[in-house]
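Weekly structure sync - notes
Attendees: PM, LS, DV (DV joined late)
Agenda: review two folding runs queued last week.

Item 1: First target. Sequence and structure tokens pasted below for the record.
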Amino acid sequence: MGLIYALGAYLSWGLVVPVHFRLLDAVPATSILAHRIVWSAVLVAGLLLALRRRIRNPFPLQPRHGWLVLSAGLIGVNWLLYLRAVQSGHMLDASLGYFINPLMSVVLGAAVLGERLRPVQVAAVALAAGAVLLAVVVAGHLPWVSLALAASFSLYGLVRKVVGVDAMVGFAAETTVLLPVALGYLVLFAPPVMTGDPVRAGLLVLTGVTTALPLIWFAAAAERLTLATLGLMQYLAPSCLLVLSVAAYGERLEPHRMVLFGLIWLALALYAADAFRAARKARAA
């Protein structure tokens, strides 16, 4: 079941979400973010009510639940970075960030959770790090947006795995943390974007669906899969995003970026082959 949840999340992030946000190009990224939070909170509250679940003050129950405040901040930052990248025509930067993310998750799993890395996995991580270094040398600057996207989402996945709460309840807690900020921004600072254009208003309301459901699926997958396996599957979303950015939106894939993506794909292929080999051995044993 964890595999199905992960597939739903990553394919949504790679295809559905970027197209949705490009349809909202006329709306500022901060306003879209605020609407994402508000409508996600409405949706998850309805889901909890329909499923007869109740959130009963999730933070003080155990000390580890306090980490949901941190996960809320991390996912809020990640959403804003992603929105700005998509709206400004830098979907390739977002794609690169989510290619780096799986290998960053592998490193975090080893460093924080004690998940052991085999020699081939270490080589895959080293190859990806070398690819980023090469891109920095050629381009003359760090791919800050890509690295920030990778770091924020890798840390988010780590925190949600450590907290270990129900996926939907955890997401409801995160939106509860972010909701006052979002409402305050919409009331005090945001331009009026819900009037005058019913299509745009409908698309803004639907941000709750395209935000909440993939994230709930991701959190459910994080509970059921190892962080390394979760990181391995994450290449699906940036692969879809890469094809979409070039084929549908006309972004140019420069030669040094082609080399960078190629090396990271090679690193992911090495890691995948090693993971499948280890899984076969485990089943045989």
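Item 2: Second target, run right after the first with the same settings.
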Amino acid sequence: MTTVAAYAAPAAKAPLERTTIERRPVGEFDVLIDIKFAGICHSDIHQAREGWGEAIFPMVPGHEIAGIVSEVGPGVTKFAVGDRVGVGCMVDSCRTCENCLAGLEQYCLGGNVGTYNAVGKDGEPTYGGYSQKVVVDENFVVRVPDGLSLDVAAPLLCAGITTYSPLRHWNAGPGKKVAVLGMGGLGHMGVKIAHALGAEVTVLSQSLRKKDEGLKLGADHYYATSDEQTFQDLKGSFDLILSTVSAPLDLDAYLALLKTDGAFVNVGAPEEPVRLNLFSVIGGRKTLAGSGIGGIRETQEMLDFCAEHGFGAEIELIRADQINEAYERVLASDVRFRFVIDTATI
């Protein structure tokens, strides 16, 4: 076992504090990673505050991990010491169900093992990236391309893949009109990726506060959802709306913005149930859908895509002792656009 420093929430809604955790010995197919950077995702806050239900404490959040391989098990073939790597939202799955075999480990029928707030196959709780090191099976580690610096690559392991996967699945590309709802950590990556895929991109945000930045990142149009006129002007406009918002929405109003056969895809996960009038999907043969992260193969594809197009996340680098302040700023939408922890400061 290796003892490493980490930041953990000792109990639900408690401030995170510096502590130590034990990492398992490096097994035959394991990779030991010296974590360099860890992104802060809104889902870290949901889980640390038990917004999505009962959680495991103490909790070390963090599933946007970028670092350097420092040791490999004797059976490891995919990585070597010194490699630049990443770990996202899961660290294991059953590997035998039809979804796992199809490269959809995120939808493992037995449930994948989360990078934190989960129980591994060894029966021990998993601890995430707000720490100095992590041990992960090589099959759940991805390579960070040389064209991406580790700090801007870290948020791609959740925010990047969570937007890339549905954009690819619903065929965002040339000739398609895509709206990204919300201009935060996920939304800004949705804009960059949809633009790079060749779609015509519109941002739907509460206000026009981030309009200049949205246009700079690749949006063609930018509208405020607080303006009722927006919903009149954009009726029947979009092939795909990607919602990154984790607050309850008036789904009927947004479904009206879709073309016939359009899809409204949720990647933001509100803590409360939402209401829906089914006539909003029946009229126009519309789809209301959700999407999780991507599988390991698709996550690697996404990293390579971002490197090829020359972009990572837009980040604000912070020290570990600023995590609690960063949580409050995320909730206040006061971040451009993703906080990343410099883990050397833990």
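Discussion on item 2: DSSP finds eleven helices and 17 strands in the chain.
Action: LS to circulate a short write-up before next sync.
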